[in-house]
Amino acid sequence: MHQILVTTSRGLDALLQDEIQQLCPGVSTKLAPGMVKVSGELSDAYRICLHSRLANRVLWVLVHAPCANEQALYSAANNIDWPSHFSHEDDFMVQFNGTTKSINNTQFGALRIKDAIVDRFVEDGLMRPNVSKLAPKFVVHARLHRDEVTICIDLSGKSLHQRHYRQTTGDAPLKEHVASAMLYRSGFVERVKQNQASDVPQSLVLADPMCGSGTIAIEAALIAQNIAPAIAREQWGFNHWKHHSAQQWQQIRDAALQAQTPASDTHVAIYANDLDRKLVRSAKANADEAGVFGDIIFSQTDALKWSVDTQPQQAIETGELTHFIVTNPPYGERLGELATLLPMFVKWGEQLKAHFANWHVSMLTSNRELLRQLRLRSNKEYAMMNGKLECKCVNYQLNESNCTAVEQHSGQQDFANRLKKNLKRLKGFIQSNVTDCYRIYDADLPEYNCAIDRYADWLVVQEYAPPKDIPAEKARRRLHDVLLQLPMLTGVSTDKIVLKVREQQKGKAQYDKFNSQHERIIVQEHGAQFYVNLHDYLDTGLFLDHRITRQRFAQDVQGMRVLNLFSYTGSVSVHAALGKAASVTTVDMSNTYLDWAKDNFRLNQLRGGYDFQQGDCLSWIKHHSKQYERIFIDPPSFSNSKRMSKTWDVQRDHVSLIRDALGCLTRGGKIYFSNNLRSFKLDTEALQDMGFAVEDITAATIPEDYIRNPKIHHCWILTLEK
């Protein structure tokens, strides 16, 4: 008996152990995380390579030795008689997994084993073999764990999950061995085996309504016809291994070919559907390459409207599972996808209940909350990895009790009632056409901790980071409730709802890049138009809480020279220009936002004596001497940007900033000073000593849609006495 290591994805190891015991009766197996250790013969390794639908690699162990340091690693590898395993004419590579305190770099570990192998050839009087990382003929695999190293030959070559048929994939391909694991966990494979052993086989149905590139349907067809998953693979890790038994391998291949079942004898009907025409085309191409194209019924339609013209012969209550849906729906890994996916899953649940009664359903997801929108009770869940994503394979039985409607829970109704109340209160304001962007909800209910802003016919939902005493899972469910309710309550379609997560920001972090869609829409406010970007940044380019502040400033600048410091996207500058200011100087550190400001000027057809200056505002105002009658300053709360000469703290530094601005202000001129630090305290005494009359206009500048949050900003008019 020889030790063989068979690896797989985490979560599939127990399934793999069962599979190996069926493929190789009598072998001894031991389970390890992501691996099964097998004591068997070379023929067992061959059978696993050819037949396993769940394995990734089959490793033939050469040595298992202590490895306290790099010298021990080198010695363990050098003591192996490598020339007896492969020729110096065959290039090779070393794959190395694991680290210890003494060997803490996998590349270094691979290099030391490579050196030991090459040196052994030279010591035996042979030429040095070459190393190839692209297409080596011989692969050495080493695993380091707890100061012990296992050195193996990789008999599989490339990973076994890479089937020969995969021509093209979608954006998030399902790995083939994971698809097979889903078919095992669903009960489909067991029913196929029962059919193959029965004198009176039952008709089975397997359907994938979101088939993508067809992996589940193709794997199901291969299973139904007992086609070994690697039967068409030509390149193996043992092709150039001197201990390879070509005769034994051929006998195992011939037996596998003889054991195949013609599609007409399987009694299995397989359906594959997807909304994306290109993916259906890819699925057909993959199925054709796998040799099962004629055994799968393909369609291209919306899964929410798709059904199969066949019904189970036996009800699920009897235990006679004959009809299976096995599918890998979208997970919503990108935050912005949830607004569209959540209501989609609600509708899909209704479709499943209406058209797939008495079916068994298995779904893979990394977002369990999405599946809860199906309003179905699961009967079993299995953890498994799909690539690097931690997923669950969730099983349902669509029996009579599971196909009843689920009522909306009280929390959802509370949120719906509050939003309706807010919209009713704001109705007059909304109809005034002052603006088409405003806040309709601001964490009114503690359990629904988010803000909702409307921008024309779009909604932006900003989830606040939940308090530490609120479980993350509960907070996520509440957010999903919000996204589900909004289309019905506001009339905004799901594809125009943007989701963001807002955590406490520092300095200019509020301006940091958030996404990369480069899409802008146009909104209007008091006769001005502005570009806003709802996707790419946490903030959109227009601070809605400053709507009244901007208007008040615009009414106070006619015929005057205006400076807008920390201008962001220039909304204050636009209003000042429309307010017939004699000149407007716009200053910001970011070229991106200055370009945005220029676009806003062009959008409003403003041309003339308008100046845009890029620079560190703190340094710029200190060295600038031009005089202005009106200055608008809305600095960040904190910044440690490398582009600034020093850190900025609005509480610590606001007096010195205003003192510097004083050098650019005419006698009788005014500074509008604002910031959004909730705990901010203006040093009124210091400003009065400079000669300013201080007027607090905070309360007067809080818009009607922000009355629940009176500390959203602070604002003062500082008038320099003549």
CATH class of the largest domain: Alpha Beta
Provide the domain count. Answer: 4
Compute the CA-based radius of gyration.
34 Å
Strand sequence of the main sheet, in spatial order? 2-3-1-4-7-6-5
Largest sheet entry: 7 strands, mixed
The beta-strand count equals: 29
Q: How far is it from the N-terminal to the C-terminal residue, by CA?
A: 100 Å
Which range best describes the helical content: under 10%, 10-25%, 25-40%, 40-55%, 55-70% or over 70%? 25-40%
Strand share of the residues? 15-25%
Low-confidence stretches: 504-515
The CATH topology assignment of the largest domain is Rossmann fold
Mean pLDDT: 92
The CATH architecture of the largest domain can be named as: 3-Layer(aba) Sandwich
Structural class: alpha/beta
The 3D shape can be described as globular
- Counted by DSSP, the helix tally is 20
Structure overview:
The chain is of the alpha/beta class. The chain folds into four domains: 2-154, VC0802-like (2-Layer Sandwich); 176-226 and 261-403, Vaccinia Virus protein VP39 (Rossmann fold), CATH 3.40.50; 412-503, Transcription Regulator spoIIAA; 521-720, Rossmann fold. It is 31% helix and 24% strand. The chain has a seven-stranded mixed β-sheet with strand order 2-3-1-4-7-6-5. The chain has a seven-stranded mixed β-sheet with strand order 10-9-8-11-12-14-13. A hairpin with an 8-residue loop joins strand 25 and strand 26 (648-649). Helix 5 packs across helix 7, helix 7 (215-224) packs parallel to helix 9 (277-290) and helix 15 packs parallel to helix 16 (571-578). It is globular. 44% of the residues are buried.
